[in-house]
């Protein structure tokens, strides 16, 4: 996500010609976009980072369900 924020910021700074960013080439920004594309489409999947968050949410739900089921204060 920080990479996307950097890209959007660079696009805005380049477009509005702010300070030293007015002189950078659009190719640098396009290269960062290519890096972001490769990261999100290939490397994240290869490293399993796209599934980690889903697994963490499922695990939290399971732990909450187990706690609710075996909590001695909430038994009938």
Care to describe what's here?
It comes from Collimonas rhizosphaerae. The chain crosses the membrane at residues 26-43. This is TIGR04438 family Trp-rich protein. Keywords: Membrane, Transmembrane, Transmembrane helix. The protein is built from 3 helices and no strands. The protein has one domain. Helices cover 76% and strands 0% of the residues. It has helices at residues 2-15, 26-47, 49-70. It is mostly helical and 76 residues long. Helix 1 packs antiparallel against helix 2. The termini are far apart.
User: How many strands, what sense, and barrel or not for the largest sheet?
Assistant: none
Low-confidence stretches: none
Average of pLDDT:
88
Number of domains: 1
Question: Strand-residue fraction?
Answer: under 5%
Content-based structural category: mainly alpha
Keywords: Membrane, Transmembrane, Transmembrane helix
Transmembrane segments: 26-43
InterPro entries: Small_Trp_rich (IPR031044)
Protein name: TIGR04438 family Trp-rich protein
Quick structural overview:
This protein has 76 residues and is mostly helical. Helix content is 76%, strand content 0%.
Secondary structure elements and pairings:
Elements: H1 2-15, H2 26-47, H3 49-70
Helix pairs in contact: 1-2
Keywords, please?
0% strand; mainly alpha; 76 residues
């Amino acid at each position: 996500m920080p990479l996307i924020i950097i890209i959007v910021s660079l696009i805005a700074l380049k477009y509005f010609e702010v300070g030293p960013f007015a002189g950078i080439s659009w190719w640098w920004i396009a290269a960062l976009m290519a890096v972001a594309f490769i990261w999100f489409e290939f490397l994240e999947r290869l490293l399993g980072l796209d599934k980690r968050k889903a697994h963490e949410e499922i695990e939290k739900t399971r732990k909450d369900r187990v706690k609710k089921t075996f909590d001695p204060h909430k038994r009938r």
